[in-house]
Amino acid sequence: MALPNVCDPQVAQNLIHRIEQVTAETQPLWGKMNASQMLAHCNVTYEYIFEERTDKPNFLVKWLLKTFVKKKVTSELPYEHNMATSPAFIIPDTKNFTQEKTRLINYINKVVSNGNKYFEGKSSNSFDVLTTEEWNNMMYKHLDHHLRQFGV
Questions:
Q1: Domains contained in the chain, number
Q2: What pairs with residue 129 in β-bridges?
Q3: 115: left (phi over 0), alpha (psi -120 to 50) or beta
Q4: pLDDT, tens digit, for every residue of 86-141?
Q5: Is 25 among the domain residues?
């Protein structure tokens, strides 16, 4: 079963609607992050796509990620609760909730405006070149996982 296409405006609007339901006081159903940390955590994905981050994995770490993690991250299978995450995605402190929510919504809109073609053959910092489907699966299921974590 294919995951919804994050480049489709209706899918993006549905995700944004779910994000807008999260408040600073919304409590997670599992895990340790508060709502602002979750939004900041989700923003890291898009920072790697659209911004210049300097914390790229070295050759050995990249090989390990491609060999043991890529399929789990880019497949259609959902994430398990309390799954381990990369250190770059750990948000140790509380962030500005409104700012993180706005950033996430803006990134989702940027995905839509760039479209599927932007992602075909685009290189990932962790997994090298990915297909549009792999990018889509990675973005959709990560965001969906955390929105479900917060009950939306």
A1: 1
A2: 123
A3: left
A4: 888 999 999 999 999 999 999 999 999 999 999 999 999 899 999 999 999 999 99
A5: yes
From CA 91, how far away is CA 118, in angstroms rounded?
Answer: 28
SS3 content of the chain, % helix, strand, coil (to 5): 60, 5, 40
Angle between helices 132-149 and 97-119 (to 10 degrees): 160
- Residue at token pair 């950033």: 103
> In 3-state terms, what secondary structure has residue 123?
strand
Nearest to 96 by CA among 12, 34, 16, 30: 34
pTM assigned to the model: 0.94
- Is residue 12 within a helix (H) or strand (E), and if so which, with residue range? helix 9-21
Report if residue 2 sits inside a domain: no
What residue numbers bound the domain in which 46 lies? 9-149
